[in-house]
Amino acid sequence: MIPFLDLKTPYFELKQELDDAIARVVSSGWFIGGEEVDQFEVEYASYCGAAHAIGVANGLDALHLALRAMDVGAGDEVIVPSNTYIATWLAVTQCGAIPVPVEPDERTFNINPALLEAAITPRTKVILPVHLYGQPADLDHVLLIARKHGLRVLEDGAQAHGARYKGERLGAHGDAVAWSFYPGKNLGAMGDGGAVTTNDTQLADRLRVLRNYGSRVKYVNEMQGYNSRLDPLQAAILRVKLAHLDKWNERRKLAAAQYLKDLIGSGVVLPYVPDWADPVWHLFVVRCAKRDALHQRLAASGVSTLIHYPIPPHRQEAYADAGWQVNEFPLANQMADEVLSLPMGPHLSENQRQQVVVSLRANVTADD
Ligand SMILES: *Cc1c(COP(=O)(O)O)cnc(C)c1O
């Protein structure tokens, strides 16, 4: 069986370095905040080309706390993609605010800037583009519209560590970028983790207070904050893995380039990369009208594929009370019906990748 993503081999590739980092934290007796978290924040901010990185407990909290730090609250509207992981929407509703979905550009899967202005109302506060599947959203267009209307931009970078927009790494194009270090992400911890990067010193300061019970000085609480801290053990692990991120992203890019070459004419719609985008291929997503059959046939032939995501947020039971109609976002629905993520990762071997190609070619055209 070819795994969708191998989470064991990364450890063995970096075993000595990771074991040393873990032992360093365990033997320090320092388990909340401290040097490892501070150092990771410095290193990750520098990697992203941002002035500040603020570690938090996970990617959802990174989004939620960043919105809180931007003063998003009850009745405010936040523009989100109609096709994203539900965390993007949950961060908005956790603030008491309203997600206003905008459909994607069908070729890139990312939010369509041409549809943004029609979604803006006097209550809109933030535009929240997602760099879905590791490909940067069209930030210049988003930022232009945001500036024109006095809105802030929070980017969901959970799938795009190291990706570049027009040559520049993601991290500080908008007002802030929220990151997840969930184990399966391009920069993954060995548990949960997250961060926000920003060039806005005031926003960074608010985030540092918000993540720590609303407190700057112990037992003095200036706001009703949260307990959402990046674990020093995870920070130490992330410091090791950050040093290898570019190399691992390069392996993903190589695998993606080969998929793109080998799957021409295979009958599936291949990912489209605009010339200004330098994606990091968190996922390699193809489209196929008979997706479910292909998914099953591939599984039967020993190739694990996944669907990101099978139910768009507006059709989740979690939002049943919000009043969105099933057919309100046809592109989100179509993506949910057609997308299929092929095995991808820094430890996918050439041999495995070729097997995926052979298997996909054999199964996509097979009769039902
Ligand atoms: C993974 C992910 C998140 C949430 O990250 P967690 O660390 O799991 O909370 C948010 N947005 C997107 C697009 C993601 O892929």
Automatic annotation (TrEMBL):
<comment type="similarity">
    <text>Belongs to the DegT/DnrJ/EryC1 family.</text>
</comment>
<dbReference type="GO" id="GO:0000271">
    <property type="term" value="P:polysaccharide biosynthetic process"/>
</dbReference>
<dbReference type="InterPro" id="IPR015422">
    <property type="entry name" value="PyrdxlP-dep_Trfase_small"/>
</dbReference>
<feature type="modified residue" description="N6-(pyridoxal phosphate)lysine">
    <location>
        <position position="185"/>
    </location>
</feature>
<dbReference type="InterPro" id="IPR015421">
    <property type="entry name" value="PyrdxlP-dep_Trfase_major"/>
</dbReference>
<feature type="active site" description="Proton acceptor">
    <location>
        <position position="185"/>
    </location>
</feature>
<dbReference type="Pfam" id="PF01041">
    <property type="entry name" value="DegT_DnrJ_EryC1"/>
</dbReference>
<dbReference type="InterPro" id="IPR015424">
    <property type="entry name" value="PyrdxlP-dep_Trfase"/>
</dbReference>
<dbReference type="GO" id="GO:0030170">
    <property type="term" value="F:pyridoxal phosphate binding"/>
</dbReference>
<dbReference type="GO" id="GO:0008483">
    <property type="term" value="F:transaminase activity"/>
</dbReference>
<keyword id="KW-0663">Pyridoxal phosphate</keyword>
<dbReference type="InterPro" id="IPR000653">
    <property type="entry name" value="DegT/StrS_aminotransferase"/>
</dbReference>
<protein>
    <submittedName>
        <fullName>dTDP-4-amino-4,6-dideoxygalactose transaminase</fullName>
    </submittedName>
</protein>
